[in-house]
Fold these 2 entries.
Entry 1:
Amino acid sequence: MERLRGVNLTQIRKYNLISTINIIKDHGPISRIDIGKHADFSPGTCTNITKILLERKLIRETSTGESRGGRKPTLLELNYNRGFVAGIEITDKIIRCKLYNLELQSQKKEYQCIFKNEKDILTAIKKSIDNQLSHYKIDKKDLFGIVIGVPGIVDTIKHGMIVSTNLKINSKIDIYDSLRERYKTPIYIENVGNLIALAEKNLVFKTESSLVSVIIKNSGIGSGIILNNEIFFGSFEDAGDIGHITIDRNGPECVCGNRGCLEAIGNIPAIKQKAIHGMMSGRKTQISKLADNDISKISLEIIRQAFDENDEFARSIIEEEADILYNGVLAIINTFNPEVIVFSGEISKFGDYLITRIKDQLKKTIFAFYIDRIVICYSELGDDAPLLGAGIFAANNFFKNPEVLFK
Ligand SMILES: [Zn+2]
């Protein structure tokens, strides 16, 4: 027997509730009779279950449907504004937070909060959520889930981030219990690559296809994998950490303890470092002019701008990056054979030339015969992808287990 506030639910009753919610979500507006047909419920069960959901305001009565001989039936639909979910992304210095209703319509503005060190992260998360709740006048009890995307290894059983090379975190940050205590809602901490993959899969590609999202942002390179319509976590929740596959065994030491990892050779600081090295060694390049001879001003935009002005050195930097990423892409193709590989993060500044170069390299391999059928592209969702993915993750979990509705 499972006890929810005011309602004693046997497993079967809980199952009936979840079935009804999802039938109304997928087929609403829908009559009670048709819900019964979809779920194989008796009319009495259907009346009881819909009564509970009407009382909790998760569904509402709407227009009347077509009569099949008797009185016109009242139709039921989901009230997507009954609750909200919070999508959060922790980047290297900033916490981003956005609220979504259960249909994933976002509140207009996201909130950003800067944090200085790992001790500040919990406070910054709370500040972000509280700001959004108060700004949009949403009661804490109507928060149906919080999903936090992090660029690191996550222990989903013990609910914590164990380590993040990107955030320079080396100890588990205990944010789960504190947030659970404060908001009394389901809390999920997820690798941000998984959340981006979920957003791309659900909002852009919308097919049954398998998909790998590769995120190249700040000092990190990570990925998220969707196989058979589900996030592929692996046995120890760390699948997709492609930043740490070896590209050059004699390469530079990586923060993970290995040598020559994709992340160590191909991350954003490594790209900038090549441009800096060129400038410092007196290489003739437009990059120097565009950066006002100031190495602190070097960015991927400037390298791209120089490339657009036919700068040979800028071209060589982009080509070298494409060749490094090609190795990562080849490993992904050989391991998962996905139909879609989507890049996101700052790397998109390098534009089509980088993607074309990767594809051209792939066409030189024995896998060439199906390379044209693999979509390799940049994310259309851009910076919104992590928060949208967090929103999707939270909403999906609510519809799988709406227990929070009875808190
Ligand atoms: Zn590594």
Entry 2:
Amino acid sequence: MLTGAQYLTSVQDGRRLFIDGKRIEDPLNHPLLASAFRFAASGYDRAYQPGATHGPYYTIPLTQGDLRAQLKAMGHWDDLASVTSTGLMALITAAARMSDHPEYGDYVARIRAYHQHCMENDLRCVQAITDAKGDRRLSPSKQDDPDLYTRIVERRADGVVINGAKLHITAAATAHELIVMPTKMMKPGEEDWAIACAVPVNAEGVSIVNTTYAPRGDDSDYWPISSQASYPEGFIIFDHVFVPNERIFLAGHVEHSATFAHSLGLWERLGGTAHMIEAADTLVGFAQLIAEANGVERISHIKDKIAEMIIYATLIRGCLEAAITHAEQTPEGWVHPNELYTNAAKHYGAAEWNLMVRHLHDIAGGAVLTAPSGRDLANPEIGELVAKYLRGKAGVDAAYRARLFHAIRDYTADAFGGWWLVTLIQSGGGLYAQRMVSTKHYPLDKAKQRALRIANFPETATPTAIASPAQP
Ligand SMILES: Cc1cc2nc3c(=O)[nH]c(=O)nc-3n(C[C@H](O)[C@H](O)[C@H](O)COP(=O)(O)OP(=O)(O)OC[C@H]3O[C@@H](n4cnc5c(N)ncnc54)[C@H](O)[C@@H]3O)c2cc1C
């Protein structure tokens, strides 16, 4: 296993990173990226155990208990470790789904060897699936630029060369490896776009343009949450990148091009839901604390809103629990979470998040945006008067209330809060994807039968074979 310091050394490998229009020469000390590298390093240090062979994020759950323990543990991992686990489990799941046919034997063997390689070297991997996509109505081969979906531009005896871009990739700049997968099902004739592989972040031809919600100021009291931990999203460009055979997990087999996206979707939505439970509890906590600080905690519409937030948090937790309880065993002997509950949980949590944030803002008041900073409170000229007017009910002083407001703003109404709003909707493929998968796995026929029974149709009724009521 690597220590945090060894990780920091390992990522000084010549990777091509950009932000705000400039090449980043010293990523570890860049004001907008330094905290992301520190956060990842702290994850290494927390997990490090002398003599241990690997960190917990590489474990393949064999039972429901393992899966439950892993999701619980995930709450203590840094985000880069979480996406590593999700990406590798997606590959393992895809390998299982391809293992029924000897034609895919090489891919399956390479995926298993790659998992082992990452585990043995304590590597962090990110999931690079979302393509640029150009005109969304057109398939990859119909785009006016074929690179708008990542594709093979050259096949060699020892590997392939790829072109394309993968967008919005969480924590890419801080990882060692990019797990590249096709964004969707490819059709016959689109074999060049059916490419899944692993590419080192510092491979020749890879460039990453970064964006981040990391605060653009140095007041850690004003940004109490996002100043502690942040990750950039990477706009990754592959410009004639060579991928050796042993890192190719799919090349040209269009029939399995969507297998990777479906496998990733499952694990990504599971991890997203686990994080969402913590976030939902945090919203409830903020709502109750600020209501108490403002003296409104016993007012009925405030209590109603907090009760609704509690129900929201509880339903997501319950649905995640059901996803684990109904986890399915694979022929290889490990388990994956239930598709229906996982997708329904992720969709519900993401779709209703905005409403819960609205409740919090409604309860908290305008100072969420306008509370003066701790530095204003400390100003010898104006601080005392700011404190006089910023305090809440008796016994709640201004510094306490200001700190709560800054945390609520940072969490829900500033750069990080905006990031959450969009991320919850789009991560895991967007709400549309979760609706599709939920519908696919829901027992719709059973529901129809039930409706027919309640409507008093005979068991064998069909829309065309039902006798008209006798005329009087
Ligand atoms: C902060 C953040 C982090 C992310 N992290 C990752 C990551 O680590 N790895 C990764 O691979 N991706 C990541 N994503 C990407 C995420 O999965 C995508 O944003 C999502 O899949 C939507 O794709 P898009 O952004 O290109 O939007 P679009 O594809 O343009 O979608 C926008 C809307 O149009 C609809 N739409 C698009 N095309 C069609 C069509 N043909 N038919 C019907 N409707 C259509 C969509 O359903 C959606 O409602 C991240 C996104 C965000 C915001």
